[in-house]
Amino acid sequence: MRMKFYSKLIEALLSRAVRLCVLTVAIGILFPSVRLPAFGLIYLIVFYYSFKSYRSKSTPCFYAMVTISVIGIIVHFYSYCNYLQVKRYIEENSTLSLGMVSDGEYIGTGQGLRSPIKLKVSVQDHKIVAVKILHYQDIVNGLDDISNKIGGTEVSLKEYVPKTAFGITKTASGYQTAIVDALWKGVAKAPTLSPLARFTYTVVENHFGRTAFNSMAIIFIIILTFDFFLQPVLKKDTGQSLNCYNCQVCVGACPIKMVEGQPFPMTMVLLARLGNYEQVAKLARYCVGCGRCAAKCPVGNSGPSVAAACVIASRNKRKRLEAESATTQEKSIQENLG
What we know:
There is one protein chain. By secondary structure, this protein is mainly α. The chain has three domains: 2-90 and 206-221, no CATH class; 102-186; 237-337, no CATH class. 60% of the residues lie in helices and 11% in strands. The chain contains 13 helices and seven strands. The chain has helices spanning 2-13, 16-30, 35-57, 61-92, 144-149, 166-184, 195-203, 210-234, 249-253, 266-274, 277-283, 292-296, 303-337, and strands at 95-97, 104-111, 116-124, 127-135, 154-156, 258-259, 262-263. The chain has a three-stranded antiparallel β-sheet with strand order 2-3-4. A hairpin with a 2-residue loop joins strand 3 (116-124) and strand 4. Helix 3 runs antiparallel to helix 4, helix 10 (266-274) packs antiparallel against helix 11 and helix 11 (277-283) crosses helix 13.
């Protein structure tokens, strides 16, 4: 049973679409600034393929996606109502009196210029006695003047933000938001977001801007590079395709040399690297199996060996799809008869 599970897992990972979805979800979890675009892209892709599958095979996957969508809308509506309740209370008390805040230490967060600001506020005798930055990866020195001014009995959302360079202004605003966020946690009767609402806004959190866009572009390139090397590693006997230099020495040694306007067998090896086993299986018909490419290749890549592995992979995939199609048709016939 366990071997069957691992076999299906490897089979799923051999699909580039599945791998890219898994990596995109991982990036969305690790990088909050691109979380909403990443999760939104995954949702649209899965919804599209489930609808396409529903039209062709009438599979229940589409109904599952519709159910998930409806539940998501209901949860988001509830979270938004909870958010409005908290927002209304904060607006009515926009100038927070420290007389409402119990003594203790509170942690708050706010959005800085390029990353979140996390800090700890210490309150004693209803006064701020210390503010400690726990995490911020940007211009921390811009917060020194603000830290020296904070104190007294009230903290307003509009105070202490200097009218200087944009970066400092953005950082200072996020810094004060983090302080206010921390202090509200010390107000006993203040309404708070429910755990479900916090989870919802964590999932749909969005700070997408120029910096996030540039970061996402770099991450996307890293994903493609990683996936480029992962495909031959997952498929048995195709790993040698990673060694190809694109030098075309094999083309000079091969008696065929060109197939459909492409250098042969180098094109076949490169397609194997990308996981296009069906196309490799078509090109493999032109291979005479002489092995001259392996003899001349500086790293010893064998065109016939790569072709054989891809042909086997292509046949196995075709058999699996035919078996799944037959099973689906059988179930459909039984449902119609029943």
